[in-house]
Amino acid sequence: MKKVIFAEFGGPDVLRLTDAEKPHAGPGRIRVAVRAAGVNPVDWRLREGQVLAAHPTELPSGVGQDAAGVVDEVGEGVEGVAVGDRVFGEGASTYAEFAVLSAWARMPGGLTFEEAAGYPSVVETALRVIREVGVRPGQTLLVSGAAGGVGSAVLQIARERGIAVTGTAGAANQDYLRGLGAAATTYGDGWVERVRRLGPVDAALDLAGSGVVRELVELTGDPRRVVSIADLGAPGLGVRFSGAAGSMRDALAEAVRLIEEGRLRIPVEKTYPLAEAAAAHADSKAGHTRGRRVMVV
Ligand SMILES: NC(=O)c1ccc[n+]([C@@H]2O[C@H](COP(=O)([O-])OP(=O)(O)OC[C@H]3O[C@@H](n4cnc5c(N)ncnc54)[C@H](OP(=O)(O)O)[C@@H]3O)[C@@H](O)[C@H]2O)c1
To answer: Which of 50, 76, 80, 168 is the right S-S partner for 45, CB 3.0 to 4.6 Å?
Structure first.
């Protein structure tokens, strides 16, 4: 089978499309014929040799954790899924023709493989940070970096729960945020004042890691009402850095419910064949993805 790997840490050009043995589904796992794999910023962070403490990486390494595909092998002890089922979920080395998944759910009807591959990690992260920041229905949540994958999920899950959202994004994404039910303003000079003019906020999320944690504390009045997923300096300001993933199985079940009810949609910004993984990583790192970028097999 074809598989994207890197044999050394470095820039996008260390990625190689190689021939590899098909992996096998061990106990409690399934193997899928991958049709699409979500591109998450953690994929290029690992390739660069960042975040190794949280994600120990042996070289050569595969790439990718999210996938959608067709089940083609079922491991020992797995029930409720059969060869031929269309599933999406989380595993390892998903930029490949075949990959093993450790958590999965049946794909909701009406979703393409490309779309489905964009959900697993962003929905798990969105559910986790909304829970950890402790925002309640009727309150207002400020989201810095609202147009990306995680932001798109946070806005829609918050709306479903009766939480009002104010989001920041670039000029090109203002209508996108409003379309997801949020009040919107641009980041950059004067942004704190622009947010204040939109009204008070009860809690805030830093999803972009753009060095705004201090201002988010100012706007909420309490570091315990702020959570960051992208600024390792946050704890120095008394703000929680959320890094430990919650239950992917629960997140996928919630994603299926929301998608089937028409309450959650993560747009696909662009698709790439496996041979163009380097371009997908460079585009993701440029930092202006709306929704998710996706590898297609
Ligand atoms: N700790 C964890 O568990 C965890 C989990 C998932 C992700 N992450 C991290 O969280 C970050 C976001 O992930 P993602 O998947 O949502 O990324 P993404 O899809 O690549 O989105 C990036 C978004 O950031 C926005 N942005 C860029 N510069 C900004 C600025 N100065 N202020 C506000 N927004 C800005 C962009 O919007 P515009 O195009 O409008 O500029 C873009 O939509 C990444 O750094 C990722 O590594 C951490």
So the answer is: 50
